[in-house]
Amino acid sequence: MQDTMLLGLEGIKKTILHGGTGDIPKVITGAKVTFHFRTQLCDDDRTVIDDSKVVGTPMEIVIGNMFKLDIWETLLASMRIGEVAEFWCDTIHTGVYPLVSKSMRRIAEGKDPVEWQMHTCGMANMFAYHSLGYDDLDELMKEPKPLYFVLELIKVQQPNEYNRESWALNDEERLKMVPVLHGQGNKLYKQGHHKEATLKYKEAIICIKNVQTKEKSWDVPWLKLEKMANTLTLNYCQCLLRMEEFYEVIEHTSDIINQHPGVVKAFYLRGKAHMAVWNEAEARQDFSRVLDLDPGMKKAIKKELALLSMRMEEKNQEDKTKYQGMF
């Protein structure tokens, strides 16, 4: 172990545990850095909070791409390939770690890193429910503490050395990807590949939401992005209807309706989902709202109401037969 070295930044100390090879690589904007990390409390037991080697997958970040814990970019830029170093970081650098950790844990658990909440960000959820969903992270959020980060630098790829996925794009590139993904999703939907189409729509929505978080809510740029996201979300819901994921359709369309109560297609798709799960009153209410907003939908709604009546009659007859058999 080498002697502790100061990085020349307030609140950071570095100790090299294992020397790397070669020169320190250029860590420029757009470079993808792959590394393992272990996060520990500064207590007597050096309690481990997170460890990527336990998860089995190294971390990847793209430099300059608004990663929430930007101090990691600074730490990694001081390392050689293969180097293992321990960094003590004061609370001025660790305050947002609980939020970052929550996202990383959800990814490791196989859950969506953006939690697939169309209109609620992680920070808003935290304030609404006073919890991140993990007791140790809640404790750190209430009382930020210095942390140890043990980092092992595996690889640095320059922007032209890897295929950039949507999460690795800058905002301008993300917005250019949206119509491409939208078109791919539409094509897959028409071909009957509904599961594959949902992935394209979802990726496009994530691109939009990442950009939208940097705009002021309800300002014109934010609203334009919101409209784009809603269009894609409704396409996503159309796929879910075909996949018989009716309750998820109800959830996402309700999110849109609560924020934008004049979106006709949201009421129409929610009505079809309610009909599929025999929520007769809710379905009739949604279809009625469609007619209020767009009288031109009269023919389509008449057809849906006839189908609803037939489904409810079949369900009632089925229940009647079932209960007769019981008694």
Automatic annotation (TrEMBL):
<dbReference type="GO" id="GO:0005737">
    <property type="term" value="C:cytoplasm"/>
</dbReference>
<keyword id="KW-0802">TPR repeat</keyword>
<dbReference type="InterPro" id="IPR056277">
    <property type="entry name" value="PPIase_AIP"/>
</dbReference>
<protein>
    <recommendedName>
        <fullName>Aryl-hydrocarbon-interacting protein-like 1</fullName>
    </recommendedName>
</protein>
<dbReference type="Pfam" id="PF23322">
    <property type="entry name" value="PPIase_AIP"/>
</dbReference>
<dbReference type="GO" id="GO:0003755">
    <property type="term" value="F:peptidyl-prolyl cis-trans isomerase activity"/>
</dbReference>
<feature type="repeat" description="TPR">
    <location>
        <begin position="264"/>
        <end position="297"/>
    </location>
</feature>
<dbReference type="GO" id="GO:0005634">
    <property type="term" value="C:nucleus"/>
</dbReference>
<dbReference type="InterPro" id="IPR019734">
    <property type="entry name" value="TPR_rpt"/>
</dbReference>
<dbReference type="InterPro" id="IPR039663">
    <property type="entry name" value="AIP/AIPL1/TTC9"/>
</dbReference>
<comment type="function">
    <text>May be important in protein trafficking and/or protein folding and stabilization.</text>
</comment>
<keyword id="KW-0539">Nucleus</keyword>
<keyword id="KW-0677">Repeat</keyword>
<keyword id="KW-0963">Cytoplasm</keyword>
<dbReference type="InterPro" id="IPR011990">
    <property type="entry name" value="TPR-like_helical_dom_sf"/>
</dbReference>
<feature type="domain" description="AIP/AIPL N-terminal FKBP-type PPIase">
    <location>
        <begin position="30"/>
        <end position="155"/>
    </location>
</feature>
<dbReference type="InterPro" id="IPR046357">
    <property type="entry name" value="PPIase_dom_sf"/>
</dbReference>
